[in-house]
Amino acid sequence: MRIIDKEKNTLFRRVLRKPLGRISFIFIAILFISAIFADFLAPMDPNELDTVNIFAKPSLHHLFGADDLGRDVLSRVMYGGRISLIIAFFASLIAMSVGVLWGFLAAQIGGWIDDVMMRIVDALLAIPIILLALILVAALGTNVAVLAIIIGTILAPATARLARSAVISELQLDYSHAATVVGASRLRILFSEVLPNTAPVLMARAVICASDTIIIEASLSFVGLGINPPNASWGSLTRTGYEQLFNGYWLVLAPAMIILIAIWSFNTLSDQILEALDPRSGA
Amino acid sequence: MLFSVSVLIFVVLRLLPGDPVSIAIGAGHRGVGAEELDQYRTESGLNRPYSVQYWLWLTKIFTGDFGVSYFSQEKVLSMIGGHLMPTVELTFTALIAAVIFAFTLAIIGATWPRSFADRIVTAIASLGMAIPTFITAIILLLTFGIWFPILPTRGYMPFSEDPIENMRLIAMPTMTLAFAAMAPILRMLRSSLGDAATSPWTRTAEGKGLLWPKIVRKHIFPNALIPTLTVVGITFGRMLGGVVLIEFIFAWPGIGTLMVDAIFKRDYMILQATILFAALATIIVNFLVDIAYGIVDPRLSFKNK
User: Fold this and answer.
1) pTM (2 decimals)?
2) Residues B185 and B38 both lie in one domain
3) Most buried in the list A19, B100, B164, B268, measured by CB within 10 Å?
């Protein structure tokens, strides 16, 4: 076990040693911290109305300007991050647990059950993600928990496919044969030998899931089928800003840029993890 | 595949809470009794068991009957027909634009590898992969609609009525969709062009004295096209998803707008049909890609199997 822990540590350090890895990690940390500690860090109450400052332009007083009710856009974006990031966290958690279990089972059982499980994955992947999300959200409602479950479920099939192929290639390696010879049970090989070795690849996938979740949640909220006002996520803030497009560009630009930064950081971090894992793949 | 998609759609749609009957009737009249609701349910077949509803729907599709909208009583097929042109127009202009830009940029990048231009090409590709369509749309709207107001922001005009206004209106949605569609094509084409240019057969071609333009045309390009074709097929799926949001943002009266509208109204018949159409379109495009493989690479054609 100690050897594995040490390896994880070096992987993490290797990611942070590269400039892109460090920048994206710092961005993500800032986003999380400003969302979690929004109560202390936000310059203003996000729901405080201020009739004097309606559509105030970005200034030292309102860094990102103020909206149609005089509310501070920066504070609203920070609080909006809470909902967006909570959904991103739980949706990735669901996508990873369902997907990894699905892929591991398919790889381990094999035969026609494996075929059926993978055909289901194929059918789910044939429908464009956004369309599937739109329909499921319309079917099941739009609170934070439901959104996380829906998005997690949508991202699970692709995760399952990745997990399955990772397990199959690991099972063909010498060390798993050796474990079988020694007499380790299948479950033991799967969870204490294969799982730690596929962990970095799966971690990179989890980070991508977080980025995909932010895109899907924001797209849904933008159409009006996600988080709805007065609750604010980055997506619903973008929606509100889009409706007020002709009253001030900062209303839509601030949340849109934050979404962009979040997605870029998550994608880059995932790339860096994969690159640190296999130095040859990095160009 | 199409069959499993059809079952999936049907099951999911029946999970929708909120009943199309009460929405359809409630929108027209006030104070409807339970009897009238029941009567409407019987007429439209919504009181039947789900398995019967599915069977009726599936068998009718084969006769070309996609049913009637619960809401407007219009035939679903004619509604889709009415919304088809704007979407087809948008998708095809965007796909053509995406392919042209992707090829131009990839060739620039591959001709001068690791140059400043190549770095920019790579940056454009990774930006295009990461940026969600609605954010591209917002940036374009701000740029060409607000800061330099040279393009109209919303609406549609048929080409036959006013070609110039049609082109002005289609410009921003096309750019948005093309940017999203271009990125994966560009990335794949750039890397496979690079691989082909450094391969042994290219060195051989150079060694036997062929001129560079001819090597590019006869040797590098055909070999780089094969993996790129696969990506074009996958890209089409991405575009179908993106088109829904783009039509919504630019008030483009296509299939996407029809769908979002149908979701809000719980109009199962329209939803089922549109998603089936989307799946069908994806399958057709992938089939065309398979045929194109054979043309680009004779080794893969069916005749030789």
Assistant:
1) 0.81
2) no
3) B268
Are B263 and A124 a contacting pair at CB < 8 A?
Answer: no
Q: What integer pLDDT is reported at residue B47 of this predicted model?
A: 61
Q: What's the pLDDT score for residue B38?
A: 64
Counting the structural domains of chain B, the total is 2
How far apart CA B96 and CA B37 sit, in angstroms, is 49
* Prior bond of B298 cis (ω within 30°): no
**Residue A215 at interface with chain B, using a CB cutoff of 8 Å:** yes
Complex ipTM, two decimals? 0.77
Instruction: List the single residue in B12, B126, B133 with the smallest CB-CB distance to A136.
Output: B12
Least confident range of A48-57, A187-196, B183-192? A48-57
Task: Please state, in angstroms and as integers, the Cα–Cα distance from residue B24 to each residue in A44, B37, B71, B257, B262, following that order.
Answer: 45, 10, 5, 19, 12
Domain of residue A253: give its range.
18-32+73-276
Looking at chain A, which residue has its C-alpha nearest residue B135?
Answer: A256
Tokens (6 digits) for A187: 């479950």
Q: How confident is the model at residue B145 (pLDDT cuts 50, 70, 90)?
A: confident
Residue of A nearest to B128 (CA): A264
Average pLDDT over residues B66-93: 79
Domain that holds residue B193: 76-304
Residues 112-141 of B with CB under 8 A from A: 126, 129-135, 138-139, 141
